[in-house]
Structures are given as structure tokens and as C-alpha cells.
Write a structure and sequence with these properties.
Layout (H helix, E strand, L loop, with lengths): L3 H12 L3 H14 L6 H13 L3 H14 L21 H20 L3 E2 L8 E6 L6 H12 L5 E7 L3 E3 L2 E2 L9 H10 L6 E9 L10 E7 L1
Parallel strand pairs: 2-3, 2-6
Antiparallel strand pairs: 1-3, 4-5, 6-7
Helix pairs in contact: 1-2, 2-3, 3-4, 4-5
């Protein structure tokens, strides 16, 4: 089974040649493993349906995500151009209101999470998640690289800024970087021979536009 991020990247590639084909591809993948894919997949399905002139299907996917699953999204992603056909629909506006309130509540409670507790290896690898991801996803992405090297300790840094249900983001501002800076400051004098910080950064803020995931790293 494909990881959700890999599946959505493949879907985006197909969407470059037409939303209808991308929608059908993702629909089949979702139906085969519906329990394994989360809010981002349903959002993609909604956007792809909207872009393929299937507004009723788009509304159905958002209804499933928000009302049936209890998920929510960052307010601006529900203003995506692919959902423009729904912007005056009363059912859609009701869904967006529910989602917006859940987002506001999540923002009010969110705190940065740094998993480090103590030094237990010679070198420290800090994994920073990308947008629409979280600390656990970052760990899953980097653990295969680090696991064969016992001298490395893997820890993760999770943003304090919610992106959607269960995911977080980093904004290009003067505050979003603070959890990373504080984490690195916390471990700077713990006696590590090498400190390595790395991230896969997702550039797209809107799921159905082309996104580019690339590694970024820094050695201290």
C-alpha cells in the first residue's frame, strides 16, 4: 500500500494532464484502502471532483470528511479555486463554518512538540516535518535512513501551527521558526559530536496545485 503523501504526489502528476483522470485514479486507490487514508485524501478528492465539474461529488467528499469523520481544514484551503462552484452553496457554507470553528479551537490549544528527553547516542538527528505533515510522519520518513546507524539519536520537532486535522505547518514569518530554534538551543550543549537537522518541505499551500517536496538539511 502506498503512503498517503506518495499517493497524493502521484495524483498531482496525473492532474497536470486532467482532473478527471486524477480523480478516477485517486478514487480507486481510496476505495481499495479507505481506512488507511485521511483528511488530505478526501480534500484531494473534493478538489479534483470540483475541478472535473462534479460539484455534487465534491460536496459529498467534504461532507464525509467534516460531518462523518469529524475532521477539519485550514479556512483558506476551503476557498480553493477548485471548490469555487460551491462557494454560494448553503450546505458547503455550513460545512465550512463547522470546519472553521474546529480550526480556531485547534489553534487556541496547539503547542510545539519536541520529542527529545535526554542524550542517548553520540549524534543527534532532528527531523522537522513539512507542511500538511506532523512529527510522526517526519519520524517515519527519516527513521529508515537513521535506523542502521546506532550512533544516531532521532528526535522530531512539531510546529505549533495547525494545518488541518492531525497535521501542522510552518509559515514564512518571524514566529514559525521559533520551536526549531528553541529545540536546537536546548540540545546545543548536551555533548553531541554532531547535530543534524533535516526536513522535507512541501511548498504548496493548496493541495490540488502542483507541490514540490524537497529535502532541506543543516549540520551544526
Amino acid at each position: 500500500m502506498k503512503k498517503e503523501n506518495d499517493l497524493l504526489e502521484e495524483t498531482l502528476s496525473i492532474a497536470e494532464n486532467g482532473y478527471a483522470a486524477a480523480y478516477q485514479f485517486l478514487l480507486e486507490e481510496y476505495e481499495n484502502n479507505s481506512e488507511e487514508y485521511g483528511p488530505q485524501t478526501l480534500y484531494f478528492l473534493a478538489c479534483l471532483a470540483g475541478g472535473a465539474n462534479l460539484p455534487e461529488k465534491a460536496l459529498e467528499w467534504l461532507t464525509t470528511a467534516i460531518l462523518e469523520k469529524g475532521w477539519w481544514y485550514r479556512p483558506e484551503v476551503l476557498e480553493d479555486d477548485d471548490l469555487a462552484s460551491l462557494k454560494n452553496d448553503s450546505a458547503f457554507l455550513s460545512l465550512k463554518s463547522v470546519s472553521d470553528h474546529r480550526y480556531a479551537d485547534a489553534v487556541s490549544r496547539a503547542k510545539a512538540v519536541f520529542t527529545w528527553q535526554r542524550k542517548n547516542a553520540d549524534k543527534l538527528f532532528l527531523a522537522v516535518h513539512g507542511n500538511t505533515q506532523n512529527g510522526q510522519i517526519a519520524r517515519d520518513d527519516w527513521e529508515p535512513i537513521v535506523s542502521d546507524h546506532t550512533q544516531w539519536q532521532l528526535e522530531t520537532i512539531q510546529s505549533a501551527e495547525p494545518d488541518g486535522y492531525g497535521t501542522y505547518r510552518w509559515s514564512y514569518d518571524m514566529a514559525s521558526y521559533v520551536p526549531v530554534a528553541k529545540a536546537m538551543e536546548k540540545v546545543q550543549n548536551e555533548g553531541y559530536k554532531k547535530l543534524f537537522a533535516a526536513a522535507f518541505q512541501r511548498d504548496a499551500t493548496c493541495s490540488c496545485e502542483p507541490s514540490h517536496t524537497r529535502p532541506r538539511a543543516a549540520i551544526c
